[in-house]
Specification:
The chain is built from 18 helices and 18 strands. The chain is α/β, with parallel strands linked by helices. The protein has four domains: 7-129, Response regulator (Rossmann fold, 3-Layer(aba) Sandwich), CATH 3.40.50; 189-314, Beta-Lactamase (2-Layer Sandwich); 335-442; 446-594, 2-Layer Sandwich (Heat Shock Protein 90), CATH 3.30.565.10. The strands form four sheets. The chain has a six-stranded antiparallel beta sheet. A five-stranded parallel beta sheet has the order 2-1-3-4-5, sandwiched between helices. A five-stranded mixed beta sheet has the order 13-15-16-18-17. Helix 16 runs antiparallel to helix 18. It starts with 6 loop residues before the first strand and ends with a strand. Residues 546-553 have low confidence and may be disordered.
Length: 594
Amino acid sequence: MSAAPVRILCIEDNPMNWRLVQRLLSQAGYEMHWAEDGFRGCELALSLQPPLILLDINLPGLSGFEVATKLRQEASLQDTLIVALTAKTMRSDRETALVTGCDGFIPKPIDPFLFVGQVEAYLHGQRDHLEAGREGLALRQFSRQVVGHLEAQLLESRQGAIKLQNAQAELEQRSSNMTRLLSLSRELAPMQDGEEILGRVLGQLQGELGLGRLRAYQLHTSGAYYMGKEWRSGSLEQAPVLAADHPLVLAAADLPGGSVTAGADLVDSPCWHAGISLGFWSPSTQPLLLPLQSRIAKGSLWGFLVADRSGEPFLPLETNLAALHGGILQVSLENAGLLDRVDATHQALGTSYEGLEDAYEALMEAQEALRARDRGAPLEALLPSLLQKFARPLAILREESAPAEATADAPEPPPPSRERIRLALDEVESLIEALRRRSGTTEAGSPHWLRIHTLLRAEIAIARAEGRIGDGVQIDLAFQATTDRIFGVRADFEELFSQLLDHAHAGGGSHLTFQTSGGPDLLRLEVSDDGAPIEPAPVTGAMLPFSGLPSKPGGRVPGPGLAICAQLLEAYGGGLEVSSEERGCNLLIRLPLT
């Protein structure tokens, strides 16, 4: 049975040296173990009890001399060989190694061809000894080394204590800064005044960092320029505006958003000379620039802070503090804008409800007028039908108001569709006005701005309610005109649309189409039906008086009101064309809007 391999412990802090020792001795059949420092080496030596310890002298922490002294104090290691591996070749160093408990030494760098033989020589009994009379000198040398090592460790401990004190002071300062910053953010949360927010943030930042000049810029809503405010002597002053394509703005947009550039880094950037020319900083001061990127439009510059101060460069703690203040400023101003929009939303909804209440009051007045005028059953029967027409605009108002009410306290409530609310109110108003005109409670009135699309919808609803157009007739609306506002008398256009409806429905068809088109200066309205075609002769004389007389029995003729339509349109500079298709009739109205 073969004997177990000899166990060797190598205490060496250099991994490359350890790998060379391991490779050479493992190939020679030895069981190798490694410790990278003196403390770990002492632990492994006690647990492994190796016959040989190869000990590096230049170890971190405990030196090799101190490790050898400690190991020789252990009774269980009295028979263990300790061989020093050292690059120190002076006689005094070798003697110190022997006097501290080493049995010999092998010089570094080791010779791969001789190393295994050197180790085996010690395992077979080789020992190095001090010359007579040299032991006292070696002990004194070792004592000096121990004292020097202790002094170095004491100095290192003192330096560590100073660093710890500085770190603790910095931590306390950071904690104090964060406390004040948290208090500031809580105070800013309910604020809606941008000037007050700017003053609070810039004032605290100037006090924290001891800044001289301090300015804040924010992109205007137009996107064309940046508005600036300067904090000076405890108050805000107007700073010159900067165009969106100013060299400083373009250079700042290329810097990391939310990260401060200061000192030499800023001097080396393209922003430096542009800032000098604007008076943001001077060559004798320490400059600072904080770009703030938009949180909505990625890659867009929302704004930036510029500042400087005399004296020491900005520390990392200070630049981080400036970045935090900039972030709080941006969030607070954006929140203030959201609060303003929420208020505007509530005001718009309030106005809408007021308009709706007025509309209902006007409707009740119209109902009373109908009853008072002895219009009898026809108008009384018409009123419930018209009331049903209010369902759609009322539903729109409820739909638009519900999310605004539900999310009024949310960070960013969705704005109501003011256009839908306006159109719904216009539709209610048009229905009421049409009802008043039919009841005789209103006069033609003076001209004012009208909505063609809204009036046409109201007239169709009235025709449906009166039974002039049956429920079985399909009516399609294709409103594509970019604008439908015209300055005119409401009664004129109600009469116009009523006559057009009567003509289109008189053809006996089941499908009517109303389509608008045109730009800001001219509106085109095309009315098409799928009723019987009109003979060529009646089409030619459609605009003449008495054109409603049939040209032959059973043939379709233009509606008697088309001549009235032509006269109304002529008063507004417009015109009417009648054309007959294979099936049905087309009316084309051109109406100038200016």
